[in-house]
Amino acid sequence: MVAEQKPQLTFRVKLFGYFREIAGNKEVTVPVDREQTTVADLKLTLTSVYPNLASAKTPYIVAVNRKVAQDSAPVSPTDEIAVLPLVSGG
Amino acid sequence: MIAIVQEPIDVNALLRSVQDEAVGAIVLFLGTVRNNDDDGAVSELYLESYVEMAQEALKKIDQEATQRWNLKKFAAVHRVGNLKVGEIIVAIAVASGHRKEAFEACRFAIDKLKKTAPIWKKEISGSSARWVEGVMLEDNQDGNV
Predict the structure, then answer these.
(1) What is the pLDDT along chain A (90 residues), one digit of tens a residue?
(2) Which end of chain A is more exposed for a tag (fewer CB within 10 A), N or C?
(3) Chain A partners of B117 at a C-beta cutoff of 8 Å?
(4) Are A69 and A38 in contact (CB under 8 A)?
């Protein structure tokens, strides 16, 4: 039954600095089977799909629509999502 | 003037952008590439930014500083890409009626930029390179003005 199948949705995640370098890409895709998830769940999926991001063991925050997002914040595939390691501008 | 740029920063253009007949003091801050860090020599820096978010962070700093110190003009430009020793990484120009406000606001602006602008710096020294250990990005949505 097509109607009962959960579509596999793709979250696009921008990477910067050290994370961009170790992933070898400015943007990665994260498959999630729900239309909405939380930042915490997205982090878990991201690090399971890209284990070298997890092994980097460097702190980071997630920005959703260019704003710092807490782990409990909801995210959907239409959001602009970015993983930001420790910043060192200026 | 608020910008993240690839090309060298034109400091004169930045200063012209904050000149005004009501201005009695302009403070200019320039951050430049140092030839050393704690671990030794540095020959070059590579800087990258989440440009759209960094521009928004700079705009918020502008709004907050302008309101708090009653500034006449504010300008901030941050460079990205490969920079050699001595080149300008960031330039902030703050213009106010009197010097006290300009000094304080300029100090505030560079300190805030370092915490709220998503920009990353990689130090290159000959054949080795390392990302600079920075600080966790702080949110500046509720800039207390």
Answers:
(1) 555 666 678 999 999 999 999 999 999 999 888 888 999 999 999 999 888 888 877 899 999 999 999 999 999 999 999 999 999 999
(2) N
(3) 87, 89-90
(4) no
